[in-house]
């Protein structure tokens, strides 16, 4: 019988991975404070949200923050606050989560897809000039998986053309670029507090910036039905066309507690990731996306690896993932296609979109696999098992060809997989 777990052998990992999300005394304490008071929502202006706005902005080396319902609407509000809308163009990477496109589409802008740097899977600054026109108003670089985008050259180009930069840092809490925190590098930055993220409250998001006017506009007005700003904030006078993007005190209790854990967790993920790079080094066909010289700390929301099928004896990515999962190491495949190929553009012809040539995005969507952040919170012994599992599968590569799986089977995060199981019931 084969030694591979997928064919009945003993799996490499027999223990369990750290549970995600982590909840403890502190989450319960802060939740209890909210529950015993009379403000669970508070129209997004309560004491817990106020504390979170200040603390998270400060954590990211910025001055102001506005927590909102999620990390998609936070980007939408940022674009709206800059008065970006129909006729304007917003450049985003072609390989990212759909939310990066959803936000500019919701304000009616044209989404322009640009290619990524194969070393990081982040927007490639050298591909920007060809995407820029006289209609370009904003760029949304994404720090995908937690690796910072190369922001200095990007900001230089943006400044030259007078274009706003909104960092999509949904996956990059705590990451650092050349000594500076992600979130402090553009004109504004958006983070997500959704369930799978490294800091989370089930759902939620925040926009941060050093621009007080921008944050006040979002915090008091655009995210609160267009009410007036500061002393003009009141119930039923609406100065602008706004949203209900309120975050709640209950959610802020959770994210404040999660923020207290973030530094230690991010450090642990970084140490474990470095160990994992060593363990995976030299395995043919397994090419982790390593820290670039400008990355001082990776957020490691994802541990991204390029799976090179040719160098892995022609084994398909899905076959490898099937074997890996059975060995007890949970891995998934990257976004299935560049966003410009998503069926939504066939379904909704009103959406305005343009693409540049994106060969690296096409390639990444076929090749990248990832391990989720909670694996990197495990102890050293478990991290070694990940290396063992990869090596074991590599040494039995020829057996993997007979695994009958589709790409679909290994797509998406653990959160999405759980949701899929529930939906099927
Ligand atoms: C890259 C990226 N941008 C934006 C978002 C949107 O965040 P949210 O789910 O809080 O709307 C997510 C995650 O969900 C993401 O991964």
Characteristic terms for this protein:
alpha/beta, binds pyridoxal-5'-phosphate, 425 residues, Aspartate Aminotransferase, domain 2
* Gross geometry: globular
Tell me the fraction of residues in β-strands, as a range: 15-25%
Q: How many discrete structural domains?
A: 2
**Class based on secondary structure composition and strand pairing:** alpha/beta
Strand order of the largest sheet: 1-11-10-7-6-2-3-16
The CATH homology group name of the largest domain: Type I PLP-dependent aspartate aminotransferase-like (Major domain)
Q: Which CATH top level class of the largest domain fits?
A: Alpha Beta
The description of the largest β-sheet is: 8 strands, mixed
Helix content: 25-40%
CATH architecture of the largest domain: 3-Layer(aba) Sandwich
Which H/E pattern describes the elements? HHEHEHEEEEHEEEEEHHEEEHEHEHEHH
Total number of β-strand segments? Answer: 17
Q: Count of helical segments? A: 12
Mean of the pLDDT scores?
A: 96
Describe what you observe in this structure:
Helix content is 34%, strand content 15%. The model has no long low-confidence stretch (mean pLDDT 96). By secondary structure, the chain is of the alpha/beta class. The protein is built from 12 helices and 17 strands. The chain has an 8-stranded mixed β-sheet, sandwiched between helices. Strands 12-14-17-15 form a 4-stranded antiparallel β-sheet. The chain folds into 2 domains: 25-257, Aspartate Aminotransferase, domain 2; 261-424, Aspartate Aminotransferase, domain 1 (Alpha-Beta Complex), CATH 3.90.1150. Helix 1 (25-35) packs antiparallel against helix 7 (249-280). The chain is globular, with a radius of gyration of 22 Å. The chain binds pyridoxal-5'-phosphate. Pyridoxal-5'-phosphate binds at residues 70-72, 96-97, 99-100, 142, 168, 170-171, 192, 194, 205.
